[in-house]
């Protein structure tokens, strides 16, 4: 009929620890799935030269090999986040921003860990892009030119390539 205070506290602590463990497990699973599908999310080129490292307090931390790739991430942050949310709707409330660090040694470490975790069988998915005279390519190219019109020629070319790859692979 009556419960002791000790029993009530024990019951509440049991519930909290179970829910906390479940939440931590769910977040870890989401992050590993994100790592596994990063190349599909960021696009072939950007996916090979950047990698997610951690998700903390609403920020997804990325590491890249070279400053040029970090710059590309900054230009495409909104598109990358949309791609993440499309594949992982449960992360929509968890990722508010991207933070990118250039560190080629750390990038190599992360890639090595990913290869160990996947048994060295990281998938190499070849994606056929539309022919440069196809209507799909022309449309994507025109959109990219308009989007990146304020950039210098070299950067615009790189960004256009990444944009077309990402949009075509959706």
Order of helices and strands: HHHEEHHEHHH
| CATH-defined architecture of the largest domain | 2-Layer Sandwich
Q: How far apart are the first and last residues' alpha carbons, in Å?
A: 60 Å
Number of helices: 8
**CATH superfamily grouping of the largest domain:** DnaA, N-terminal domain
What average pLDDT do the residues reach? Answer: 76
Envelope shape:
globular
Main sheet: strand order: 1-2-3
CATH class term of the largest domain: Alpha Beta
Helix/strand-derived category reads mainly alpha
Low-confidence stretches: 12-22
Output the radius of gyration.
Answer: 21 Å
| Share of helical residues | 55-70%
How many structural domains are formed by the residues? 2
**What is the CATH topology assignment of the largest domain?**
GMP Synthetase, Chain A, domain 3
Structural commentary:
- By secondary structure, the protein is mainly alpha-helical.
- It has 2 domains: 115 residues, 2-Layer Sandwich (GMP Synthetase, Chain A, domain 3); 44 residues, no CATH class.
- Helix content is 62%, strand content 11%.
- It is built from 8 helices and 3 strands, in the order αααββααβααα.
- Strands 1-2-3 form a 3-stranded mixed β-sheet.
- Strand 1 and strand 2 form a beta hairpin.
- It is globular and about 75 Å long.
- It starts with a helix and ends with a helix.
What's this, in brief?
Helices cover 62% and strands 11% of the residues. The chain is mainly alpha-helical. The longest helix is centred in the first third of the chain and has 32 residues, at 5-36.
């Amino acid at each position: 009929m009556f419960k002791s205070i000790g029993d009530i506290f024990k019951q509440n602590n049991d519930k909290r620890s179970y829910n906390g463990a479940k939440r931590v497990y769910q977040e870890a699973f989401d992050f590993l799935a994100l790592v596994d599908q990063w190349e599909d999310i960021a696009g072939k080129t950007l996916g090979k030269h950047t990698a997610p490292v951690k998700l903390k307090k609403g920020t997804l931390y990325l590491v890249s090999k070279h400053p040029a790739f970090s710059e590309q991430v900054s230009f495409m942050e909104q598109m990358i986040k949309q791609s993440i949310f499309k594949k992982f709707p449960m992360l929509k409330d968890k990722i508010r921003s991207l933070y990118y660090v250039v560190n080629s040694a750390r990038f190599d470490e992360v890639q090595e860990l990913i290869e160990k975790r996947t048994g060295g069988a990281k998938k190499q998915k070849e994606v056929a892009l539309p022919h440069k005279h196809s209507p799909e390519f022309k449309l994507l190219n025109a959109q990219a030119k308009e989007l990146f019109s304020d950039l210098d020629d070299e950067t615009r070319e790189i960004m256009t390539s990444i944009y077309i790859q990402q949009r075509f692979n959706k």
